[in-house]
Amino acid sequence: MAGLQPQDDLLKMSNRESWKMQHERLHVKHRGHEAMHAEMVLILIATLVVAQIVLVQWKQRHGRSYNMVTLLQMWVVPLYFTIKLYWWRFLSTWGMFSVITSYVIFRATRKPLSCRTPRMVYKWFLLIYKLSYAVGVIGYLAIMFTMFGFNVFFRIKAEDSMDVGVIMLFYGLYYGVMGRDFAEICSDYMASTIGYYNMGGMPSRNLSNDVCAVCGQRIFVDVDEEGIIEDTYQLSCNHTFHEFCIRGWCIVGKKQTCPYCNEKVDLKRMMNNPWERTHVLYGQLLDWLRYLVAWQPIIIGIVHGINFSLGLE
């Protein structure tokens, strides 16, 4: 009975007290191993530096293969942890996103391309982009709400409000990255199929003044006119496009050149108000997050392998 007493006391403790006791035991266990810990930190820093150099060189020399491998890892790595940790809520949203996006990609890669497909593709990924942006902002606000203690006024536990904020922030950023990457792939396939855009050379078709090079459909609204559903946008190279098409091409599909002549697009001119510029900053944040989610677990795994081979714990 005496041997069971510490275990019974541990069960009666709160989660915070239990975590504090386990943390103290961990300090006792690793006391006197400072030299080994310093060596492990050096291995971690060296691995991160080498990995960063390799990834940057790979991206510059073989950008297409780098993007495909990164996207595959972004898609698979969270799935592995989801199944391992029984995160069924994330698995359900991941499954719905994967099914719908797979259908969209299927439609975007068919030849001949349906005239309705480009608009459908851009509408889907623009919806994902806006939803991920909104969910991410709400998650960030929930975290700030908890850190400043406003949860006390609504009698919400700090752990609960913080968990909700972190989960929503992760959902928003993750699906934002996935949507932009898949949109880029679909943009290349559709534009190449239509013939007004070629990733590696000159377009195979001449572009008329009243045709949008992104979707291949006619433009019925003049640049100076105000459209009922959408306006017509003209780039500095004087090529005109449907407003939704060129916004989807540049902001969601990550293309910063004209779909026809490859002249660089000034994204600042496309922003009607200062609030829209946050979408560009959000896109840059998603590009940074891609490295964190896709490659960080692999780099940490390599570090653990090196430590294990050297006998470091």
From TrEMBL:
SMART domains xrefs: RING
Location, primary (coarse class): membrane
Gene Ontology molecular function, alphabetical: ubiquitin protein ligase activity; zinc ion binding
Entry keyword set: Membrane, Metal-binding, Transmembrane, Transmembrane helix, Zinc, Zinc-finger
InterPro entries on file: RNF121/RNF175 (IPR040176), Znf_RING (IPR001841), Znf_RING/FYVE/PHD (IPR013083)
Recorded GO CC terms: endoplasmic reticulum membrane; Golgi membrane
Subcellular location field: Membrane
Protein name per UniProt: Uncharacterized protein
Organism: Cirrhinus molitorella (mud carp)
